[in-house]
Structure formats: structure tokens, C-alpha cells
């Protein structure tokens, strides 16, 4: 995946700061204090026992400190239980989530489970912090199952404080090719992959934070005139090849474009800084937050710092010496960037890969 060129010369619409990663990841304790409640519509749901979900979550969290790639060895029935329990929670909330700060926003994870745990160690394990993830939990990395299962556990346990959007890889047509299907088939069954596909078809595609920060996985759409159009999208559904939902998951900003142009991915569009400025002004928004592209520092600005690309998988695929980024939005909508540097071992591995490729 290509990354957009930085565009950080203009003044940001809100105060932005960067928080460097601590020298070493500490053993952060899991929190017991609930944070502020988000605006959702799950209160009418029945409340079955949380014990099996908590048990699964604890087994996943017990992998903290284990060598990367250590498997959780959940049973297929346990994973199916997670999928069964999360589906009605997702469908009870809207396609355009209306959220409140404070919260942390994370970009692509792509099966890098060890790095997901590092993000939580740094940002605070739920429910100490509220979270919004922007999609692409599966494919490419080696532990898509552990990654998506932990995210689902947290969604079930804290439905009003933990939110997961759909990325373009949460689609059967994509993750059939890029790794998740093979991981499900190798470790469990094709049937389990189909169960996950049903869950992915229920994920929301966008979120707005305090009516000022609009978030999605990909980007804007030439069809998007009113935010209500997002809320009106039908679920459950596959990701279509064209149209509003496709663009929200697939489009990209491009510094070399004014207006709209074809996307080199062969799907959706690219859009220019002029499109971002006009959209934000029309809808009285301050910032667009999206993921979908690898960026060297974990985040990268576009359109005079009015759009930011966020990528949360450091040392992506063991081939990029990139950092992972996470945005912390406080109660006043001030945004700071928390950065996960690649581990020294991962960085050395990436350097060897690059040297081998050059040879």
C-alpha cells in the first residue's frame, strides 16, 4: 500500500501534540474504573452472563509477555460464542456512531496481536480508556484470530465504551485472499471463517466524535452529501464494489489531485485537499481521521492538518520500519499522538529483509 505525502505546513484546526513511547513497555494493570458512557443504543439488550466472555479475554491477555506468535488455543465453540454474542450488539448501534470524548483512536492492526497488546499497555486497558478502532483487524499478520477475538471480547464487555469500525479487509472477498481465510482453515475450519464474515457484515462504517471529528477506515465519497446517508446504510451487508460504503472503506487522499480521480488500487477514488476543505466547511467539522495506508511515523497529515492518516501496526508485516500511531482525544477535543516505535528486534528483522531485497 502506498502512503500519502505529508502536508503539515498549515495551522491545525485544534491543538495537536505528540507523546513519545516510553523507553520500555510497562506491565500496565487492567483497569476496573469505567470511563464516561458513549451515546449508543444497546440498553434494551438482554444481559447474559459475562463469565465466559471474561474467561476468554483473560486467556488472550495472558499472552502478554509471551514470544510473538504464541497462540491462545481457544476452542472453535468459544470463538463462535463470541461471534454470536457480539452480532446483536453491533446491530443495535448505528452505522454512524455518535461518540463522546475522551477516547483513543487506533488504525490498522492487521493481525499483529502482540502490538495490539502494546497499544493497550500504552493507552490503558479497557475500561480505563475508551477506544475507537478504524478497521483492518485481520489479514497479513500471523494472529488475526487472537486480534479480532480480543476486540470482540471488549466490545461485548464494554459496548458503550469500546467501538470497532469496518475496514476494507473485514470483507469476505478480501480476507479470502490475504490471509484470514487460510488462518481460519488451518487452525479451525472454513465454517468459522464464514461465521466471522457474518459478524463483519454487521460492523458500522463511520463514527463522529462530539459532532466535530469524523472517522472512517478509508475516506470520503463523491456520493456523500449528508452524514445521514451513512446512518441510513443497510446492514448486514457485503461491501459493494462501488458506491458510498465502498468509498468509506477504500478511498485515499492524494496530494497530486484536485477534486476526484481514479484510485490506483482499482477500487474507489482518490481525493484532493480541496475536497477535504469543502467537506469540513459544509458539515461544520474540524478533522477527518482515517486509516488504510502505511505511514512511516504512525500518523501523517493531509490538507493543512485537517485530515490525518493513522496506522497502528508498527514494523508492518516485518517489512516496514514504521511506527504505530494512536490518537488520544481529550474532553476538549485536543488531540495528541501516542507513538509505538518498532521493537529493536523487529527493526533489525526489517533491516535484514530490506538488505535481502536489495541483494
User: Would you count the extended β strands for me?
Assistant: 15
- Overall shape: it is globular
Question: Order of strands in the sheet with the most strands?
Answer: 1-15-14-3-4-5
Strand content: 15-25%
Specify the biggest β-sheet: 6 strands, mixed
CATH architecture assignment name: 4-Layer Sandwich
Count of helices?
11
User: How far apart, in Å, are the first and last alpha carbons?
Assistant: 22 Å
Poorly predicted ranges = 1-15, 20-41, 346-359
Number of domains: 1
How much helix, percentage-wise, in residues?
25-40%
Record keyword descriptors for this entry:
disordered N terminus, 11 helices, six-stranded mixed beta sheet, 15 strands, 359 residues, globular, alpha/beta, 16% strand
Amino acid at each position: 500500500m502506498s502512503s500519502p505525502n505529508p502536508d503539515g505546513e498549515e495551522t491545525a484546526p485544534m491543538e495537536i501534540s505528540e507523546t513519545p513511547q516510553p523507553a520500555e513497555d510497562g506491565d500496565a494493570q487492567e483497569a476496573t474504573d469505567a470511563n464516561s458512557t458513549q451515546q449508543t443504543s444497546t440498553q434494551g439488550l438482554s444481559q447474559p452472563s459475562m463469565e465466559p466472555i471474561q474467561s476468554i479475554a483473560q486467556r488472550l491477555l495472558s499472552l502478554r509477555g509471551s514470544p510473538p506468535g504464541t497462540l491462545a488455543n481457544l476452542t472453535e465453540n468459544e470463538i463462535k460464542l463470541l461471534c454470536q454474542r457480539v452480532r446483536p450488539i453491533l446491530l443495535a448501534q448505528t452505522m454512524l456512531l455518535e461518540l463522546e470524548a475522551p477516547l483513543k483512536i487506533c488504525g490498522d492492526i492487521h493481525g499483529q496481536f502482540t502490538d495490539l497488546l502494546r497499544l493497550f499497555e500504552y493507552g490503558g486497558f479497557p475500561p480505563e480508556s475508551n477506544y475507537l478502532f478504524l478497521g483492518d483487524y485481520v489479514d497479513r499478520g500471523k494472529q488475526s484470530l487472537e486480534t479480532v477475538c480480543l476486540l470482540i471480547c471488549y466490545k461485548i464487555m464494554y459496548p458503550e465504551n469500546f467501538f470497532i469500525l469496518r475496514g476494507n479487509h473485514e470483507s469476505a472477498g478480501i480476507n479470502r485472499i490475504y490471509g484470514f481465510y487460510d488462518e481460519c482453515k488451518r487452525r479451525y475450519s472454513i465454517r468459522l471463517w464464514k461465521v466471522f464474515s457474518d459478524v463483519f457484515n454487521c460492523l458500522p462504517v463511520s463514527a463522529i466524535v462530539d459532532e466535530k471529528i469524523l472517522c472512517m477506515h478509508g475516506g470520503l465519497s463523491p456520493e456523500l452529501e449528508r452524514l445521514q446517508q451513512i446512518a441510513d446504510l443497510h446492514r448486514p451487508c457485503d461491501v459493494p464494489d462501488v458506491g458510498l460504503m465502498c468509498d468509506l472503506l477504500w478511498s485515499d487522499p492524494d496530494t497530486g489531485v484536485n477534486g476526484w480521480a481514479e484510485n490506483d488500487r482499482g477500487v474507489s477514488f482518490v481525493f484532493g485537499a480541496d475536497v477535504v476543505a469543502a467537506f469540513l466547511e459544509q458539515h461544520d467539522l474540524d478533522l477527518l481521521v482515517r486509516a488504510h495506508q502505511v505511514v512511516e511515523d504512525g500518523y501523517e497529515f493531509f490538507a493543512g492538518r485537517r485530515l490525518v492518516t493513522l496506522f497502528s501496526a508498527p514494523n508492518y508485516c516485518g517489512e516496514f520500519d514504521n511506527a504505530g500511531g494512536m490518537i488520544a482525544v481529550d474532553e476538549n477535543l485536543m488531540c495528541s499522538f501516542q507513538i509505538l516505535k518498532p521493537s529493536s528486534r523487529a527493526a533489525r528483522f526489517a533491516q535484514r529483509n530490506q538488505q535481502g531485497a536489495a541483494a
